[in-house]
Structure formats: structure tokens, C-alpha cells
Design goal:
The complex is a heterodimer of chains A (47) and B (201). Chain A is of the alpha+beta class and 47 residues long. Chain A has two helices and two strands, in the order H-H-E-E. Chain B folds into two domains: 98 residues, Rna Polymerase Sigma Factor, Chain: A (Orthogonal Bundle); 70 residues, Orthogonal Bundle (Arc Repressor Mutant, subunit A). The chains are: A alpha+beta (47), B mainly alpha (201).
Chain lengths: 47, 201
């Protein structure tokens, strides 16, 4: 029986961030507002 | 079918357009960007740190930085989006290693041994005892010198004074001080040779 020298593709597919991380980032993005005042910029996190 | 069309349409929109849409307030564009590149970025970080939890942290920090930069309007579309994000991830990986004060493990299995170039310069217990004994012997020899020579030698070697300072302190000229130093060393050598004293570590 010939051996297959192929990497297990299942292993590669698991290399992605957790769902929670992605959701956190999207929520963070929505919560972050930049307030501009003249030349100044302020960051505000509104949950 | 509809989903497939949607995915195809999403693929058609370039990163640059998505970025500018996001800057203009379209939050969904960020979602598309993350979905599109998350695997590449995550794998890139994982290939450097080899730890799932750290990778997750660095991935999150990378996109927090991306989001803040984009929202603050500091992003300039000079290069491509993905290489820019990769660069941020790369810098954060370096920060991570710097913070933990360790770099990726050095492979010591080849014929090159890292310990052949690294050495511990501090003395071991035996050598430091010998060093102390040698220093005591030297001090005892110095005590045997004539007072004027002893004075100059102690000022020069132990008090680290310049010959100018020595001449000011002792009230003799610089040349006299230099001469006394010279005779002090000659006399020390003579005594050492005469008594076969070994003063090496």
C-alpha cells in the first residue's frame, strides 16, 4: 500500500480565529466612535 | 444560489473599496475584510508563536490596531490592505517576544553549539578566592615599599587619581610622581622575582 505524503487539510482549516474573537472585534468596531473637535480627535467606547 | 452570488459579489469588491466604505461608516465592510483575510493572518501569527492562546490575543490586538487606525483616519492607501495588516501582526509578535524576554527557541541540535560563543564571564568560587588571595598578597608587597613610592602607587592604582592630581596632593612635580610610580613598580617586580611569588589566577 503506497503511503500518501499529503498534509491533512482538516488540520490547516482549523487555523482560524475563534468565533468569539471575530465577534468581539466587530462589536469593538461598532462601539468605537471618534469625536473630532477642531484638530483634536477623541476616542469613545460606547457599549 | 443567492448565497453564492453574494459571495461572488463580495469577492469582486476590492480591499481598497471595502476599506474606504468602512472608513465612511459601513461596518459590514470590516466583517467582509476579516472573513476574507482571517485565515491568512491567523496562520501567519501561529507560524511565529506556536501557541493558540497567544495567536488569538495577537490576532485580536492586530485588528484593534487596524480598527483604530482606520477610524482615526490615519490609514493611507499606499500599499495593499493585507500586507499592512501582516506588518502590524508581525510587529505585535515581536512585541510579544520582547515582553516575555524570550525569542523563538534556539535549535542546538546541529553541529553549531551556541554555548561555544556564549560564556559566563563571572568567576567561579575557586577563582574568586584565588583572586582575593592575590590581591591580599599584592597589598602586603605594597606595604613593604618606601613611603613616597607607596603613596603615589596607592593614589594612582587604588584611588584612580591622575598624575596631575597626585602632584597637587603630594606637593611634588608631575615628573617626580611619575618617577616614584616607576620605581614602585620596579621594586615590586624585584621583590616578586626574588621570592618567586606567583600572582596569577
Amino acid at each position: 500500500m503506497a503511503k500518501l505524503y499529503i498534509e491533512d487539510s482538516k488540520h490547516l482549516e482549523t487555523l482560524k480565529p475563534a468565533e468569539e474573537t471575530v465577534n468581539f472585534l466587530l462589536n469593538y468596531s461598532q462601539a468605537l466612535t471618534i469625536i473630532k473637535y477642531n484638530k483634536l480627535k477623541f476616542e469613545a467606547l460606547l457599549n | 444560489m443567492l448565497l453564492k452570488v453574494m459571495i461572488m459579489r463580495k469577492e469582486l469588491i476590492t480591499d481598497a473599496v471595502l476599506v474606504s466604505n468602512y472608513i465612511n461608516g459601513d461596518e459590514r465592510s470590516l466583517s467582509v475584510l476579516i472573513q476574507r483575510h482571517k485565515q491568512k493572518i491567523y496562520s501567519f501569527i501561529y507560524s511565529k508563536v506556536f501557541d493558540r492562546d497567544v495567536t488569538e490575543d495577537v490576532f485580536q490586538d492586530t485588528f484593534i490596531k487596524v480598527i483604530r487606525t482606520l477610524k482615526l483616519g490615519k490609514y493611507n492607501e499606499e500599499g495593499k490592505f493585507l500586507p499592512w495588516v501582516m506588518r502590524i501582526a508581525h510587529n505585535l509578535v515581536i512585541d510579544h517576544f520582547r515582553k516575555n524576554n524570550r525569542m523563538p527557541k534556539f535549535d542546538n541540535s546541529n553541529d553549531f553549539n551556541i554555548f561555544s560563543v556564549l560564556s559566563d564571564s563571572s568567576l567561579n568560587a575557586e577563582k574568586s578566592i584565588i583572586k582575593g588571595q592575590v590581591e591580599d598578597d599584592v597589598k602586603r608587597l605594597i606595604e613593604e615599599l618606601p613611603d613616597d613610592q607607596k603613596e603615589v602607587l596607592i593614589m594612582r592604582m587604588y584611588n584612580d587619581m591622575s598624575f596631575k592630581e597626585i602632584s597637587e596632593n603630594t606637593g611634588v612635580s608631575i615628573n617626580t610622581a611619575l618617577g616614584r610610580m616607576r620605581y614602585a613598580l620596579i621594586n615590586l617586580r624585584k621583590v616578586i622575582e626574588k621570592h618567586n611569588i606567583v600572582l596569577t589566577n
